[in-house]
Amino acid sequence: MYIRGAPNVNIITDHKPLERIWQKPKPPLRIERWGLRLQPYKLKITYQPGSENPADFMSRHPSDNPVKSPGTIYSRTDKTIQKAIEFVRTGQWFKIKNITDLEIDIEELQALRSISGELVTYGDTILLRDNRIVLPSELRVRAVNIAHEGHQGITKTKAFLRSKIWFPGLNDRVDNAIKDCSACQSVTHTPKELNR
Questions:
Q1: Same domain, 74 and 137
Q2: What pLDDT, in 10s, does the model give residues 34-50?
Q3: pTM recorded for the entire structure
Q4: Which residue of 11, 72, 136, 181 is 20 to 30 Å from 167, comparing CA positions?
């Protein structure tokens, strides 16, 4: 979407064989299909060794300083998650009706209560549904955006998210994100109405 129609697009790669991929006289069918899909684009592939490639810096220069996971920090500040962790440990879900703190989402706690048999805690800050992290509210939009980066469809985006995380309303959040994605809408086929 971003490069279609651009006069020249330079792709810099540290994968040397990619530079000559289109020069083979009879490439495999898979590569021919790639070529057909890429015909509308004016691409120039340039090889640059990984040691000189700035995009490859992070894999070649890992940080020596351990960084706390942002998810842990957000979980500590998410009062709803913290209250759910407390209820998972004590089993006192009936105390939801006594909560007066406006920063705690009662509706979300009720949703967590309905699956309380599947919830476990890890440490003091992480709530899990089986083996998936119950994501704090501040990270949900970001997680959906990351899962949808490749502009996969609704089904694949949901499946990817469900393999790693869970939170109440995940399906609706993904549906809305994809419905609002201009790149996805530009390639979605809408059925034409029949003239009667």
A1: yes
A2: 888 888 888 888 888 87
A3: 0.59
A4: 181
Same domain, 179 and 85: yes
Q: Which residue has 């021919």 as its token pair?
A: 32
Give the tokens for residue 193: 């109405």
Give me the half-sphere count of Cα atoms (radius 13 Å) on the Cβ side of residue 55.
8
- Helices 170-179, 154-164: inter-axial angle, 10-degree rounding: 140
Q: How confident is the model over 25-36, as pLDDT tens digits?
A: 888 888 888 888
CB 125 within 8 A of CB 75: yes
For the chain, what is the domain count? Answer: 2
Sorted by sequence, the CB contacts under 8 Å of residue 103 that are 6+ apart come out as 79, 80
* 114 part of a folded domain: yes
How far apart, in whole angstroms, are the C-alpha atoms of residue 150 and residue 173? 17
The letter for the amino acid at 154 is: I
